[in-house]
Amino acid sequence: MNKDFKILVINPGSTSTKMAVYLNEVPEYSVSIPHSREEISRFPTVWDQYSYRKGAILNELESQGYHVADMDIIVCRGGNTAPVEGGIYEITPGALEIMKSGKYGSHPAGVGNLISYELGREYGMPVITCDPPITDEFCDYARYTGLPELTRLSSFHALNQKATARKVTASLGKTYSDSRMVVVHMGGGISVGAHLNGRVIDVNNALDGDGPYSPERAGTLPNADLVRMCYSGKYSEAEMLKKMTGKGGLVAYLGTSDGLLIEKIIDEGNVEAKNVYMAMAYQTVKEIGAMAAVLDGRVDAIALTGSLAYSEILMDYIKDKVSFIAPIYVIPGENEMDALASGAVRYLTGEEQPRKYNY
């Protein structure tokens, strides 16, 4: 690399805005700006938070002696658009209009895209995102469900999964575009992806809670029992959706999604807590086996990532069950900020060419 690049990374969440300044792929400064629920609740929609979040970002930069004009590029977490292939995308007015429409859902990341785009236009620098959460590279067979009225959708932790895959393949002396991997992200949701030659050809819909149950999601449920529950008259549609994504999994069984707290309870001798916790790992193991089969059993590596990858009890169980398939690599954490910065470097050096939003 002949030039040092200054990179501004913006990643808004529901109650915080993560922001960092990188020199190439090394963070110089990183912060998570908190937003209290009282502050956020003042805004009717996420888009009404534009000025509030932009001001918080600019104030934080100024307080640390930085200015947007000092940057070479701004990179932000992807927003809710129509499904696209993984890769780097330049933010465009058309993409922002799709995000604002809410057709594909609404997330504070969309506001981050708008803030980034406006700052980039003001200061004359590129604005990109990479591997957005609506990344869709499914093989045709992966879309079928068993009912023609329903189609399987690709919605998972694409940013961290692909960044983790690139790290592991580099350590193997391979390229991501010439590898076969199973990557497991274990956080509030759990996604298990089959990566074939740089494409995620199958993965469970972690956003809606399919696949293994997780700290906050119910996972794939018994069909008939679920239908009966929906029509029991006890729950509204909104309540059922919340039970599956937000109040399912560990929260439903144990009242918390805090892995450290659960492990403490297990250490104190709570057998049911251990059974619930380890059953989550058991279901994840089954999904890993399924994705290994999608790759014809020829797997270069299995990568375990996400916040729950810090849990030794979970990692030991999973490694013991699936090490016969391929070597296992544990890379804990969400790693989103590093992944975004790495994408910016690939863009600036020309290592990876940007794709185009077709709207």
General description of the model:
The model has no long low-confidence stretch (mean pLDDT 94). The chain has twelve helices and eleven strands. The strands form two sheets. The chain has a six-stranded mixed sheet, sandwiched between helices. It has a five-stranded mixed sheet with strand order 9-8-7-10-11, with helices on both faces. The two termini are 34 Å apart. Strand 8 and strand 9 form a beta hairpin. The protein has two domains: 6-134 and 337-349, 2-Layer Sandwich (Nucleotidyltransferase, domain 5); 140-326, 2-Layer Sandwich (Nucleotidyltransferase, domain 5), CATH 3.30.420. The chain has helices at residues 37-40, 50-63, 93-101, 108-123, 158-171, 223-230, 237-244, 249-254, 259-267, 271-294, 312-322, 336-349; strands at residues 6-12, 16-23, 26-34, 73-76, 88-90, 127-130, 180-186, 190-196, 199-203, 301-306, 328-332. By secondary structure, the chain is α/β, with parallel strands linked by helices.
Overall 3D geometry?
globular
Helix content: 25-40%
CATH class of the largest domain: Alpha Beta
- Here the CATH topology of the largest domain equals Nucleotidyltransferase, domain 5
Structural class by secondary-structure content:
alpha/beta
CATH architecture of the largest domain: 2-Layer Sandwich
Summed up, the domain count is 2
Integer average pLDDT: 94
